[in-house]
Amino acid sequence: MLDNHLAWPFFSDAHRTFAGALTQWADERLDTTVHPRSTAEIDTVSRGYVRALGDGGWLRYAVPSPFGGIHERLDVRSLCIAREILGQHSGLAEFAFAMQGLGTGPISLFGDDALKRRYLPPVATGQSIAAFAISEADAGSDIGAMQTTARRDGSHYIVNGEKTWISNAGIADHYVVFCRMDGTARDFLALVIEPDDPGFAVSQRIDTMAPHPLGTITLTDCRVPASRVIGEPGKGLRVALGTLDVFRTTVGAAALGFARRALREALDHVTTRSAFGKPLAEFQLTQSRIATMATEIDASALLVYRAAWTRDQGASRITREAAMAKMYATEAAQRVVDDAVQLLGGRGVVLDHPVERLYRDVRALRIYEGTTEIQQLVIAGQVLGAHSPTEGADVRPAASTDNATR
């Protein structure tokens, strides 16, 4: 199944070689029997996956080449291939890779060379763990409601506020934090905060249905050097949207990986389990479900890799393509995984069975980095804007960013 879509014209021979090597590595090195439950176990396993991915050289695909990476600029097809393959093996390993990219994405895309030299190389080797902090209790999709503020004080900014649903909270070595510039309504700031900065604290850890290192960070008169600002002061919204434009597509790829694993588990079951004297695979209702699952997977792959290819070909923005890929692939994966559970019957709901884990893993994908409903608004805004009789009119909704837990 994987080789079929890698033969599509979206990919180069280098992508196919990369996919084959990563698949072999994941088959040999990822222990899929590890199912952490406690916060300490989740943190330990997550750190271990980051180190293993770094030692294997795979995190080099998450940063640009002048700073320890493989490609001169982020290659979105490689990011998608990695998330798809890792997603078929382990949701937590896939998450570990994803966060190294997302947590440094603003720096890779908008940071100056000093920031890139400081933060990207250790992320590429797995020696440093990254985090992306934009969501607040009352400001997820609507970042205009953001309450975290930054006030300039000489050569520093003083940051106050709280960020929640933050992946890697408690284990990250740096956090890219988005906040409103004090005294302004629509001017935002992106800057890098380190756990040792005065006024920084992880105030809460959050347990979720699919175990991840997730929590709330509190910033109380947190003093951050102005040299750690990413991009231009006041242009933080551009940094956030530009980063999500790239990484939203990769969420669809993670969903694609989960769906492929679910279909494989379902096929293994229906071709070996018999009922009423014949294999389940011979029943028309089973065949109908399998056909729908396979079609949704191929449709998701087409949307995901169209978006990735478009970006890699030099498009400055892929807002419409990324939103379509994220929306369709995550919703389709939910349906595919649910179908797999149904086909497996009682086995499908046994704790820590692969499809039971997938059922828990896939649900969050429809929420973080922009809910399905937000993607619908983004897509409609793009389509209506293109159709507007006023050339260049922008009718995109204000609520067009993320509800990010990663």
Your description of this structure?
The chain is of the alpha+beta class. The chain folds into 3 domains: 2-129, Orthogonal Bundle (Butyryl-Coa Dehydrogenase, subunit A, domain 1), CATH 1.10.540; 131-233, Butyryl-CoA Dehydrogenase, subunit A, domain 2 (Beta Barrel), CATH 2.40.110.10; 237-387, Butyryl-CoA Dehydrogenase, subunit A, domain 3 (Up-down Bundle). Helices cover 49% and strands 14% of the residues. It is built from 12 helices and 9 strands. Strands 1, 2, 3, 4, 5, 6 and 7 form a 7-stranded mixed sheet that branches. Strand 4 and strand 5 form a beta hairpin. It is globular and about 80 Å long. The two termini are 28 Å apart. Mean pLDDT is 93; it is low at 391-406.
CATH homologous superfamily assignment of the largest domain: Butyryl-CoA Dehydrogenase, subunit A, domain 3
Write down the overall geometry: globular
How is the biggest beta sheet arranged?
7 strands, mixed
Structural class: alpha+beta
Question: What is the mean predicted local confidence, pLDDT?
Answer: 93
What is the CATH topology of the largest domain?
A: Butyryl-CoA Dehydrogenase, subunit A, domain 3
Please tally the β strands and state the result: 9
The CATH class label of the largest domain is Mainly Alpha
Q: Count the domains.
A: 3
Taking the alpha carbons of the first and last residues, their distance comes to 28 Å
Strand content: 5-15%
The helix fraction, in percent, is: 40-55%
- Any idea what the CATH architecture of the largest domain is? Up-down Bundle
Contiguous low-pLDDT stretches (5 residues minimum) are 391-406
Counting DSSP H or I runs of 4 or more residues, the number of helices is: 12
